[in-house]
């Protein structure tokens, strides 16, 4: 789901204004939800009784609560599987007092996180270069369990059928929670687990009569559609002749169609409580999932530190347990430094399109046809035209033309708009396409033509209301026709599939970009996957005007966002895990990154939404290629020790890292953020290369998972102004051994800014590509 960066700014300004008007004294008295993080549970994780754990936490709380407020002595969530902690209601002063305890790492306000298929998998297969008829390995994948933390699940979807799937793995420890509209029979051998949590809005008033022991209200059933869509994209069973009212027809399936699904309903349409997300991650770890998929993230404007971020905290401890965590990178692009979920132990995903669009043609009265993009099921035809008007020309009385041209609420004159097709522009980012469509609908317009260069390739679902979106070039021609014709007319045709679109993939306009805001020494995002116009399972729609005339609700839907890209990678990771069950999360991550494709279906470098070549800050290592990743040749193993060094170099103290790791790990005496670049990561990012002829040398170690006797030779792709020397230039293996190499970067007169390139090791069969980004300062 795309969230406007401007909306976040407005929320921030409102908060600041509120504080200015009402003062800050109330903040110290008002209670709100806080997360109390206490580090690793160590080898004792989950073995203490929940009662004993709760008693200890309550004793800790009672030490800081005033005697008159003992009725607030309760806990919302307890974390006790891979990590320790709890969430509770505190005042700002109480949170500060609690953070002073030695056993506590961080106390932070419970943040509100936002929610960030029939052709996509076939497209990835073709783009891999292995051919559309290349067979998938004959592995079932039934032993791999994917945990989907999202808005729940619609169990009746055919994507969650367990036909042909064997018994549930005996190691599974999860449950199928019953609710108001969900029974144990809704789970099966495919959907093996379902949990839900109390959906308390962050910062809302808490009912003190409802303690943590009270049964949650609701059920795991998805009321939004987001969770159902992501779950089926990752591991949905094959469903033939799937479509969204005829659009995107084909066989819908997940990336690992035999893998099991465990659904954790931690979000609603309004967002997600960070404390609840952390509880869901803790439960998923305890239940025994292999992969966790989270299409959720913090605001890119207010990013929290790594140990104040619930997803980063949960993902660290999941990695400790050998569980891979894949997260969406956010929808705040195309601005730089907007990528979220950027901790190195998270697999961070950007979004791109596939070679399919949903086209709605605009037919003008002069016969000219412009192929716009949208999802609409209108009943208009080419044989009948309707009056056409520019929004700025039909403004309501006393309304500026600039507002009416953007179809801002209340800006259109209903008398002048009724029965007309209205042309709106998008020079005001404050108003979404959905709002503009509703404004025109309320003003009794016959339809809307949107001129929007940035979002023209991101299809908007307008239901039965005629809607089409064109870019600036076509938009100019439509406006020129209006201005040169006495009685301009047009019609908008219902959407049809347009396949084999070129170029593809293209990085989506909304996809958040690197470098990382918290640190530029790890290259983020990591990878790109399809996230535009993705067809997958959906909850039944009931909104008036969303269903074509005479049709029943569709079992599938079309959504866009990095939310949709994330489960593609989760499915690919589960697929690889099914073939290589002994591989660690970092080995799977490395395999997907070093085999990623960097060219489009025209054989040229992948481009971004501005038609320029996409950089690694747009795509990470490139577009996933699951089949190629099965046999990567060499992998970079990033171990827990590497992540602990990351925390050292980032600036955390020894005692904090002891608590986080659960062991006596000690930081090096000389720690600095620049040293993060030396961690054994599958990509390279140098945040500062200073001065002419200055040199920065880093080391990497690869593990051979390919042929026993092999020799790899290096090839460097780098800008002329950036010197790159790799030593040695040849790596020889005689079995599953490890080998290290050094890479030296030096400035040969490069201009300021990031320079990108790659280092590729090849043995004639495998090509192991390592992307780098070097910032010349």
């Amino acid at each position: 789901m795309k969230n406007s960066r401007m909306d976040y700014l407005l929320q921030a300004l409102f908060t600041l204004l509120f504080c200015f008007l009402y003062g800050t004294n109330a903040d110290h008295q008002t209670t709100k939800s806080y997360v109390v993080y206490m580090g690793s549970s160590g080898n004792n994780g989950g073995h203490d009784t929940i009662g004993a754990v709760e008693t200890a936490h309550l004793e800790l709380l009672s030490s800081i609560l005033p005697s008159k407020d003992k009725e607030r002595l309760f806990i919302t969530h307890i974390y006790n599987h891979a990590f320790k902690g709890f969430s509770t209601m505190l005042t700002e002063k109480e949170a500060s007092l609690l953070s002073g305890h030695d056993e506590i790492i961080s106390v932070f306000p419970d943040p509100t996180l936002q929610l960030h298929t029939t052709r996509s998998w076939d497209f990835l297969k073709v783009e891999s270069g292995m051919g559309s008829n290349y067979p998938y390995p004959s592995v079932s994948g039934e032993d791999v369990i994917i945990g989907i933390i999202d808005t729940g699940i619609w169990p009746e979807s055919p994507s969650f059928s367990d036909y042909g799937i064997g018994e549930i793995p005996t190691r599974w420890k999860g449950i199928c929670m019953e609710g108001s509209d969900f029974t144990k029979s809704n789970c099966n051998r495919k959907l093996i687990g379902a949990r839900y949590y109390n959906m308390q809005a962050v910062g809302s008033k808490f009912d003190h009569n409802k303690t943590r022991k009270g049964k949650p209200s609701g059920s795991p059933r998805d009321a939004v559609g987001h969770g159902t869509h992501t779950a089926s994209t990752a591991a949905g069973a094959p469903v033939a002749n799937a479509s969204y009212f005829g659009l995107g027809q084909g066989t819908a399936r997940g990336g690992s169609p035999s893998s099991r699904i465990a659904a954790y309903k931690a979000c609603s349409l309004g967002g997600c409580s960070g404390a609840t997300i952390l509880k869901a991650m803790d439960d998923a770890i305890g239940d025994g999932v292999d992969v966790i998929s989270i299409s959720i993230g913090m605001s890119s404007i207010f990013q929290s530190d790594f140990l104040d971020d619930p997803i980063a905290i949960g993902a660290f401890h999941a990695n400790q347990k050998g569980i891979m965590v894949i997260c969406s990178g956010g929808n705040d692009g195309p601005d730089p430094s907007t990528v979220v979920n950027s901790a190195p132990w998270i697999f961070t995903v950007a979004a791109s399109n596939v070679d399919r669009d949903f086209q709605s043609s605009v037919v003008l009265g002069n016969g000219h046809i412009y192929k716009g993009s949208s999802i609409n099921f209108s009943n208009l035809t080419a044989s009948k035209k309707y009056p056409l008007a520019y929004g700025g020309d039909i403004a309501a009385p006393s309304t500026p033309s600039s507002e009416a041209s953007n179809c801002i609420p209340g800006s259109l004159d209903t008398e002048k708009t009724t029965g007309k097709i209205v042309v709106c522009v998008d020079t005001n980012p404050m108003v979404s396409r959905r709002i503009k469509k509703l404004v025109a609908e309320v003003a009794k317009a016959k339809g809307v033509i949107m001129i929007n260069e940035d979002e023209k390739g991101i299809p908007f679902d307008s239901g039965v209301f005629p809607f089409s979106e064109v870019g600036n070039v076509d938009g100019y021609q439509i406006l020129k026709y209006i201005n040169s014709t006495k009685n301009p007319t047009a019609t908008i045709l219902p959407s049809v599939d347009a396949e084999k679109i070129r170029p593809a993939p293209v990085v989506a306009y909304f996809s958040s970009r690197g470098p990382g805001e918290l640190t530029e020494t790890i290259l983020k995002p990591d990878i790109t996957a399809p996230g535009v116009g993705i067809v997958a399972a959906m909850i039944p729609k009931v909104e008036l005007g969303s269903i074509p005339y005479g049709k029943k609700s569709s079992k599938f839907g079309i959504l866009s966002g990095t939310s949709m890209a994330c489960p593609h990678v989760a499915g690919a990771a589960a697929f690889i895990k099914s073939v290589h069950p002994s591989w660690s999360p970092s080995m799977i991550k490395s395999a997907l990154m070093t085999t990623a494709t960097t060219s489009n279906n025209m054989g040229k470098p992948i481009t971004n939404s501005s038609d320029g070549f996409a950089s690694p800050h747009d795509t990470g290592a490139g577009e996933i290629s699951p089949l190629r990743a099965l046999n990567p040749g060499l992998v970079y193993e990033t171990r827990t020790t590497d992540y602990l060094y990351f925390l050292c170099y980032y600036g955390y103290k020894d005692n904090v890292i002891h608590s986080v790791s659960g062991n006596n790990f000690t930081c090096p005496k000389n720690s600095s953020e620049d040293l993060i670049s030396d961690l054994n990561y599958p990509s390279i990012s140098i945040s500062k290369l200073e001065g002419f002829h200055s040199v920065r040398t880093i080391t990497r170690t690869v593990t051979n998972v390919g042929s026993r006797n092999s020799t790899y030779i290096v090839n460097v792709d780098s800008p002329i102004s950036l010197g790159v020397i790799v030593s040695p230039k040849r790596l020889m293996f005689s079995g599953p051994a490890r080998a290290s190499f050094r890479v030296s970067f030096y400035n040969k007169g490069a201009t300021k800014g990031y320079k990108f390139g790659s280092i590729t090791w090849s043995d004639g069969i495998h090509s192991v590509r390592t992307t780098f980004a070097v910032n010349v300062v």
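DSSP finds 18 helices and 38 strands in the chain. The domain at 634-639+680-776 is CATH 2.60.40.2310 (Immunoglobulin-like).
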